[in-house]
Automatic annotation (TrEMBL), chain A:
Pathway: Amino-acid degradation; L-glutamate degradation via mesaconate pathway; acetate and pyruvate from L-glutamate: step 1/4
Name of the protein in its database record: Glutamate mutase sigma subunit
Catalytic activity: (2S,3S)-3-methyl-L-aspartate = L-glutamate
Regions annotated as coiled coil: none
E.C. no: 5.4.99.1
InterPro entries hit by this protein: Acid_CoA_mut_C, Cobalamin-bd, Cobalamin-bd_sf, GlmS
All copies of domain B12-binding, residue ranges: 3-141
Description of how the protein assembles with itself and partners: Heterotetramer composed of 2 epsilon subunits (GlmE) and 2 sigma subunits (GlmS). GlmE exists as a homodimer and GlmS as a monomer.
GO molecular-function terms, A-Z: cobalamin binding; metal ion binding; methylaspartate mutase activity
Family from the record: Belongs to the methylaspartate mutase GlmS subunit family.
UniProt record, GO biological process: anaerobic L-glutamate catabolic process; L-glutamate catabolic process via L-citramalate
Taxonomic source organism: Proteiniclasticum sediminis
Superkingdom: Bacteria
UniProtKB/TrEMBL annotation, chain B:
EC number: 5.4.99.1
Name of the protein in question: Glutamate mutase epsilon subunit
Cofactor: adenosylcob(III)alamin
Organism this protein belongs to: Proteiniclasticum sediminis
Pathway(s) of this molecule: Amino-acid degradation; L-glutamate degradation via mesaconate pathway; acetate and pyruvate from L-glutamate: step 1/4
Keyword match Isomerase: yes
Length: 142, 487
């Protein structure tokens, strides 16, 4: 089996690039094929990249608070595009202001996301979930 | 028309202006004569440019928060709270991210949904959608000068609207509001668009109205070496001055090492003066702004106050004219108004305790100032060479060639070949210089400093240091030492 592919990007009108670059670096180092569509990416770009690369996971970052508006309908759009069952992860500062995270998590789970991460999540947490959801990746030179 | 660092003629400006005002229906509300009359009535204590002049003359450091929400009433309540309960000397209006990308229809969705939800779904104030009418309501409701703070590559319509509304300062610039804030907007386009914003300020100046402009200092806010941000600030100062701006605030984002931070502000002010004088703009009045730590924050509010206080202390000891304040909610995103006011009060207390004190010159401080200036000079000289004597053309070329290179920038017009890391005292140095045309002395100095850290930590000097440094402050330390090493 080849390496599992992850589509990575920052959604909406958000230009926070630092975490994106670190995730790219760390996921690649962990043996995944990372397709990084970068910042300021609309839902369509995530979905098109996932179709083109036969990705197993779409990993959405949002740091600027508009995540709630930007992520709406993404699961339905994936279904329509033939990406039924693709794993959708979202993390960062996904809402405006300090809100109860459990409530926020429920809101995003209801939207169809499989994993919802609070601010300050380490890369290790995401790697552990990826292994759980996808099985072990082929690790190169680990 | 070829891009040049040359003041737009009135004809050029007004022909561009006609088109700019059509970008969104509120553009039609902007009437320049009415705006001039309105701005002439702004009292001195509510004029950003004049309040900064006064603060500099008195040797004070002013405190300014960031803040903005979707709806007018709520935004006014927020700003009033920050001046009344927080004690802010200067007020902001942070503009939401859809406006920054000129996506006004999405702002409207955000405004409507915020009304329905009873909470702001936008991360800032959509000033273009609210138009002159809405922005004047904000100006009239508060006591202090107000500034737009954003991250907009094309801020022409936004600038028209805010200045016509009595907002007497605008943050941004053709480099600093492109490279850290956009993915695929060309440098040539943003320089032109910001020449327009600066020319607008120049126009008001010709009518006897002084407005303040502030290049955005911290750039990506992540381990940006002082000489990189100083180079960008000086370039934007030169471009703004040419368009007729006479009141400029150059900025720098805290890196964390006290001596380096103070050296950065001193070098920035002195070198901006030097370049403006040398290239024919001695009339420009320069002030400085120090941004409290722009990187990742600790989630623990008590620890966050530690970060905020050190930032305030550094601004005071450096002699910055103003300090941009962080909040104890920084790690979690946009703060409540209470948390925001706490950040200001913490800052003002620290500033008061240090009032009148400056870090005295020492061999260490002198050495840092000297190295920052030397690095900056290498870049600026090269910009002038590749631009064949023109700073606007030179800036475009310099980014193409990686002569100036901003770490962790989203823009594809940035080379991204330079990499920073902290030295053993926490000062930010160049780990990889990419295509930046430094002298061998400078390259050797940076290498030596990083080797010192590698030796202390008993590891190779690599990108892993950079990664560790990015997360270090969030985890409670300035320097990203290897795990398990808690010295």
């Amino acid at each position: 089996m080849g390496k599992k592919t992850i589509v990575l990007g920052v959604i909406g009108a958000d230009c926070h690039a630092v975490g994106n670059k670190i995730l790219d670096y760390s996921l690649t180092a962990a043996g995944y094929d990372v397709v990084n569509i970068g910042v300021l990416s609309p839902q369509e770009d995530f979905i098109n990249a996932a179709i083109e690369t036969d990705a197993a996971v779409i990993m959405v970052s949002s740091l600027y608070g508009h995540g709630e508006i930007d992520c709406r309908g993404m699961r339905e759009k994936c279904d329509e595009a033939g990406l039924k069952g693709i794993k959708l992860y979202v993390g960062g500062n996904i809402v405006v202001g300090k809100q109860d995270f459990q409530e926020v998590k429920q809101r995003f789970l209801k939207m169809g996301f499989d994993r919802v991460y609070p601010p300050g999540t380490t890369v290790e947490t995401a790697l552990k979930d990826l292994r759980e959801d996808l099985g072990f990746a082929e690790v190169i030179g680990a | 028309m070829e891009l040049k660092n040359k003041k737009l003629t009135e004809d050029e400006f007004f022909s561009l202006r006609k088109e700019v005002l059509t970008h969104w229906p509120t553009g039609q509300e902007v009437d320049l004569q009415d705006a001039v009359d309105y701005l002439k009535k702004v009292p001195a204590e509510k004029n950003f440019a004049l309040k900064l002049r006064k603060a500099k003359e008195e040797g004070l450091t002013l405190a300014q928060p960031r803040a903005g929400v979707a709806l007018i009433e709520e935004h006014i309540a927020l700003l009033k709270y920050l001046e009344d309960e927080g004690g802010a000397d200067l007020l902001p209006s942070t503009i939401d991210s859809y406006t920054r990308q000129n996506r006004y229809p999405e702002c409207q969705i955000g405004i409507d949904e915020s009304m329905k939800a009873g909470r702001s779904l936008l991360n800032g104030f959509p000033a273009v959608n609210h138009g002159v009418k809405g922005c004047r309501q904000v100006y009239e409701a508060i006591r202090n000068p107000i500034q737009a703070r954003h991250g907009t590559p094309d801020a022409r319509l936004l600038s028209e609207i805010i200045h016509a509304s009595g907002w007497t300062s605008n943050e941004g610039g053709g480099i600093s509001y492109n490279i850290p804030y956009a993915k695929s907007v060309s440098m040539e386009k943003t320089i032109r668009d910001w020449q327009y914003c600066d020319r607008l300020v120049g126009f008001y100046n010709e009518q006897g109205i002084e407005l303040n402009r502030e290049p955005f200092g911290p750039l990506t806010g992540t381990l940006v070496p002082p000489s990189i941000s100083n180079t960008v600030a000086i370039l934007e100062a030169l471009l703004a001055a040419e368009q007729g701006v006479t009141n400029l605030t150059v900025g720098y984002g805290q890196c964390g090492n006290l001596i380096q931070d103070i050296a950065a502000i001193r070098a920035l002010e002195e070198q901006t003066r030097e370049y403006l004088d040398h290239f024919g703009y001695p009339q420009v009045f320069i002030t400085t702004v120090f941004h409290q730590w722009m990187g990742g924050f600790p989630a623990d509010e008590a620890k966050a106050f530690g970060v905020i206080s050190v930032g305030a202390a550094t601004a005071a000891l450096a002699g910055a004219t103003k300090v941009i304040v962080k909040t104890p909610h920084e790690a979690l995103g946009i703060p409540t108004k209470e948390a925001n006011a706490q950040g200001i009060r913490d800052t003002i207390m620290t500033l008061n305790l240090l009032k009148g004190q400056r870090m005295p010159m020492s061999p260490e401080l002198a050495k840092e100032i000297q190295i920052i200036k030397a690095e900056t000079r290498c870049m600026l000289q090269s910009v002038l060479e590749v631009g064949k004597g023109d700073f606007a053309r030179g800036t475009v070329e310099a980014f193409k060639l990686g002569i100036i290179d901003v770490p962790f920038a989203p823009s594809k017009y940035n080379a991204g070949k330079m990499m920073p890391a902290r030295d053993n005292q926490g000062a930010v140095r160049y780990l990889m210089t990419g295509n930046i045309p430094f002298t061998q002395d400078i390259i050797d100095f940076n290498k030596e400093k990083l080797m010192e850290r590698g030796k202390f930590e008993n590891r190779e000097v690599t990108f892993q240091m950079t990664v560790d440094d990015i997360f270090a402050v969030g985890k409670g330390n300035l320097i990203g030492r290897p795990e398990g090493d808690k010295k």
